[in-house]
């Protein structure tokens, strides 16, 4: 897997002073375009622009919510988790790995729009390099060509569609 260094200073600056990237994506701003793999009335999932692991995805409510529990009614939270599960299962169908990590990060200071990360840890990664270590930008981000990203997004969309068709 090829990696390149991450410009963490530029990323931090964008997160702190830039517009909400998820809201900009949903508004159709081409500067914030991502490879969408799932979308319904209330949720969207897309490939992470700066993946620390191959095939890393983000799953978000379309509404700009900021708190991963308190901003939801119980039925809305359960629907959100169904969307996360659907995307995670599709990732397991497409992206090889030994485990799927699910987590929500962000801050009131930056990247405040709630989002869940779906990340597959590749098989064979030594234990010392798994978990938190594998999620650090300092390890670099996975490099994919535009065609590789498009192909991966197509396979993930197909896996989501197949899972939806099975019910």
UniProtKB/TrEMBL annotation:
It comes from Streptacidiphilus cavernicola. Gene3D superfamilies: HIT-like. Residues 21-132 form the HIT domain. Its EC number is 2.1.1.-. It is an enzyme of class 2 (transferase). One of its GO terms (biological process) is methylation. PANTHER family: ADENOSINE 5'-MONOPHOSPHORAMIDASE HNT1, HIT FAMILY PROTEIN 1. The keyword RNA-binding does not apply. GO terms for molecular function: methyltransferase activity. It holds the Pfam family HIT. This is HIT family protein. Keywords: Methyltransferase, Transferase. It comes from the Bacteria. The keyword 4Fe-4S does not apply.
């Amino acid at each position: 897997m090829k990696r390149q260094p991450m410009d963490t200073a530029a990323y931090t600056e964008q997160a702190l002073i830039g517009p909400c990237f998820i809201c900009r994506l949903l508004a159709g701003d081409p500067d914030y375009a991502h490879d969408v793999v799932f979308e319904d009335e209330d949720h969207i999932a897309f490939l992470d622009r700066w993946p620390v692991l191959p095939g890393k995805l983000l799953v978000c409510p379309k509404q700009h919510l900021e708190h991963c529990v308190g901003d939801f009614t119980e039925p809305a939270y359960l629907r959100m988790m169904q969307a996360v599960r659907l995307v995670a299962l599709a990732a397991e169908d497409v992206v090889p790995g030994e485990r799927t990590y699910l987590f929500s990060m962000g801050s009131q200071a930056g990247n405040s729009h709630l989002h869940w990360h779906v990340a597959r840890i590749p098989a064979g990664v030594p234990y010392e390099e798994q978990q938190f270590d594998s999620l650090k930008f300092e390890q670099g981000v996975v490099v994919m060509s535009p065609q590789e990203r498009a192909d991966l997004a197509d396979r993930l969309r197909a896996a989501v569609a197949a899972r939806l068709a099975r019910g």
